[in-house]
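User: quick one, fold this
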Amino acid sequence: MPKTLPLMVQGTSSDAGKSAIATALCRIFAQDGYKTAPFKSQNMALNSYVTLDGKEIGRAQGVQAEAAGILATTDMNPILIKPTRDSESQIVVNGEPYGNMKAFAYRTEFYHEGLRIIEEAYQRLASSYERVVIEGAGSPAEVNLNDRELVNMRVARLTNAPVILVADIERGGVFASLVGTLQLLEPEDRDRVIGVIINRFRGDLTLLQPGLDWFEEYTGKPVLGVVPFIPDLWIDAEDSLILHRYQGQRETPREIDIAVLRYPRISNFTDVDPFFVEPDCRMRFVTRLEELGEPDLIVLPGSKNTLEDLQFLRETGLAAAVKDLHHKGKTYIVGLCGGYQMLGDSIHDPAGVESPLQQLDGLGLIPMITTMEQKKTTVLSRGEAVFAKEKLTVEGYEIHMGQSAYSSNEFPFIQMEGRTEGYCQEERQMIGTYFHGLFHNDHFRTLLLNTIREKKGLPPITDRPSFVALREQGYDLLADTVRRHVKLDTIEEYMKAFQEKEVQV
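Assistant:
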């Protein structure tokens, strides 16, 4: 097999578009016939992805593996950091929980172990793939952290990868962010940057050209491309920083109003992405009582700290409002994972797995009690559900610490091999399940939305879009856009040239 050619994508900040550019490159290399894998040494995210063997990695690397046409493995994201509270996170190593750590302890005590884990994972990938697209995190110019960082230039040196620096022009100050980042890098790291990509550009490129010319002359670094903003690109995000972009629909009038409760530790919020492509749905993320109103559907999404997010709902009055809407019969309520646990009678955490809070009463809308346990459930799931008088197959994935027990469950939602899962009482307009990805099942989503339409006296919509197909089209759209606007031949030349140099560690 030819020697692996790595390429690293770093950004001037979080949410600069690193993940999207890396996803596009994974697709492009795969389209060009190269066996390609993504890699992110250390990922801090509450949106995660379950591999075929039931392990957990960052969602972006799962998506990038899909774009490359391969199955995701834990080697693609050997360290996942999932914040549970301020300055404390659960550390997931090679797909399994390693323990909860404070930020200072992680930095001082885990560094050398982390470096070993990262190097071993990368070497396994490098032995099996012709191209490895490496994604950084945040910014490489965090001068207060760079002596012990595990995700940016240290990984570029470890893998001898050339680096592309990405900046988001929508934020403003794009040239200042690029120049400032380059100037704050150590000289040897600055030399590793082969050029920059300006992302999410809208408008007339001729107006930007003088700035591009100035940048190249001032820094000596080429502009490898200016990638235009791509509307309606349905590729899963990993970082809650992206949630500000989800606000665009909140004032758009539609026939079905959906409110998603956005608590402080919301996780796997991309569960609700399919509603964005529905022609009759207006979806809003709600953090305050006065924003809730009387929606047709309320979604309680996943949480990385279920008890404290439940307490947030109580303190804001949202918990009482959800119960009131339920008792009035005005609203369908769906709880996913942590949101499902909140709908039960109570949640217990005697060992402090997620929180120092040991017990809280739930909303009392589903007859079950949840107890947090040290062992995490991570599994791809499939079963048969009955909804709206139809039997259908539903697929998803489970990621949760708690186990739920029913005092009585006459209304199980999903029949799986050897067990039932979840709760569905259609007359009470109540669904709870551990299945992430429930709404990605096109048939179920169609039935749910048409049930709501029928309740409102509206005719059904039978030709709803397939979200799975739209996501696959999104990979191609992203790749095609990058092909048109980025100097891929130049990047390829640098990738080959770098592998002729001695590896610097």
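User: anything notable?
Assistant: Residues 318 and 398 are 26 Å apart (CA to CA).
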